[in-house]
Amino acid sequence: MSDIVRFGVSLDNTLLKQFDRFIKDRNYTNRSEAIRDLIRQELLKKEWTEDQEVAGAITYIYDHHQRDLLNKIIDIQHDFHDVIKSTQHIHLDHDNCLEIVAVKGNPTTISKLSNALKAIKGVRHGSLSISGVGQIA
Known about the structure:
Elements: H1 13-25, H2 31-49, E1 54-63, H3 69-79, E2 84-91, E3 96-105, H4 107-118, E4 123-131
Antiparallel strand pairs: 1-3, 1-4, 2-3
């Protein structure tokens, strides 16, 4: 017996047309998979607001010539060693580096780490990509 449950959804025709364009743009094969992904996305956001264990990646680009920048990055990473699982350093060109920090733990702590790294003088861009730890179906 399947665990799949079918249910009906009533939508305004204009909203349905917009949703169908969204499905086409994202290459979904059907509405059901798009709805499942949207539900998962909202449940994931909820995990991040309820202090459940989460995972994610912090990415940032910085000018490695910036005075004392690397020491500040290392100090911050050591301050948050309990949530950092891995880091990857990539040389983009002569001046710019990309760093990817894989994280797992408390969402508040991870957000503080992300904000601290992005606030360092010389960091040109940074973002936090959120995910869960596999609890959402």
